[in-house]
Design brief:
heterodimer; A: 255 residues; mainly alpha; 9 helices; elongated; B: 97 residues; alpha+beta; 3-stranded antiparallel beta sheet; 3 strands; globular
Chain lengths: 255, 97
């Protein structure tokens, strides 16, 4: 497994990004209680499910790397977590897109981990035959194991197709969010809106790379994409820190 | 050419404007100063200032000459800081209140 250390890095990115997403969700929830802005509800809900998805995916991938179960259990765990993460990601970015569009007209295991898991843990027919030789078990058990692996391969193919569809949907939703963010920044022209625009733009760029990674099964691309996505969440963290400074009277004076 | 009417300020936005107006006068401001800086009519200013006094965010004081002025309470200072942080947060997402 040559990319194993990078997989660790991608998992760390996922967990840290998830924590930042939950922090943004918390502040959006807190300020919504204060000022009652419906778009803040969308932002809070979107970041909450995105954060939970990232944390779940990262945690499951970390558990699998440290080997919590047998081969089959690990695969099922990864596929299950990956599918759950996809659903949550689509829901989160759809929520952002709807929230932004409403605001504009009534007045977005990381994919890197997924990519790596797909390539490093792919069960080729050669591997199956080696496994059959190594594990000389009774015929019935071997047949059952083989059937299980075939089923896993079908599931892996399904996961790959699912990844492609997920990434296409996310790129569409995030493009809408970035477009609205661009308009907002053009109007507001402050550093805070720039940080948010930068953040969503980086996450969009990351998902375009994730799409490429899913299409061409490129592990390296997915690692780079995970790094870019993490940079996007770091930008959100800088936004939160900057906003804290801004909120104080001293910060206002500095403005 | 269609000119959209400006969205009316929310109550919380008016609170923020009043609290900022008091702070900009050094933490104690006369009603006329608040009225000008927060861009409010006399009636609305009286109503909103009364609400802020009831919530103990602003305190009403009287000079020896009989002139009234308003000061920010400790809670008022904290509430103002929180509102400004909320304003910064929503402005980052291109929103306003």
């Amino acid at each position: 497994l040559p990319s194993f250390p990078y997989l660790d890095l991608a998992i760390t990115f996922d967990l840290l990004s998830g924590a930042v997403a939950l922090l943004v969700s918390y502040y959006a929830f807190r300020y919504n209680r204060l000022i009652e802005n419906s778009t803040l509800k969308f932002i809070s809900f979107g970041f909450m499910i995105l954060g939970l998805g990232l944390l779940t995916s990262g945690a499951v991938d970390a558990l699998v790397i440290f080997g919590v179960g047998d081969f089959y259990t690990d695969r099922v765990l990864v596929i299950g977590a990956s599918s759950l993460y996809h659903v949550l990601e689509i829901a989160a970015y759809f929520t952002f897109a709807v929230g932004y569009v409403r605001a504009a007209y009534s007045l977005p295991a990381s994919p890197a981990v997924r990519g790596e898991e797909e390539s490093t843990l792919d069960v080729s027919p050669k591997t199956q035959s080696k496994m059959a030789l190594i594990f000389t078990i009774p015929c019935v058990l071997a047949a059952a194991a083989n059937a299980g692996i075939r089923r896993l391969q079908e599931m892996m193919a399904f996961v790959k197709a699912e990844s492609l569809v997920t990434e296409i949907l996310i790129v569409v939703f995030l493009s809408m969010v970035v477009f609205q963010g661009l308009i907002s920044h053009a109007q507001a022209r402050n550093r805070l809106s720039l940080f948010v625009l930068l953040s969503f733009s980086l996450i969009l760029a990351a998902h375009i790379l994730f799409l490429g990674s899913a299409a061409f099964s490129s592990v390296l691309t997915s690692i780079v994409a995970a790094g870019i996505q993490f940079a996007g969440f770091l930008s959100l963290l800088v936004f939160l820190a900057w906003r804290g400074r801004f909120g104080s009277p001293a910060g206002k004076a500095a403005q | 050419l269609v000119v959209q009417p400006e969205k009316p300020r929310s109550k919380i936005r008016i609170y923020l404007d009043i609290l900022q107006a008091i702070r900009s006068d050094g933490g104690a401001a006369k009603p006329t100063h608040i009225l000008q800086k927060a861009n409010l009519s006399h009636d609305r200013l009286t109503r909103h200032l009364g609400e802020l006094v009831d919530k103990k965010l602003v305190a009403e004081q009287q000079e020896a000459s009989g002139n009234r002025y308003y000061t920010l309470t400790q809670d008022g200072v904290k509430f103002l800081a929180e509102l400004e942080r909320a304003e910064s947060f929503v402005s980052g997402f291109g929103l306003s209140f």
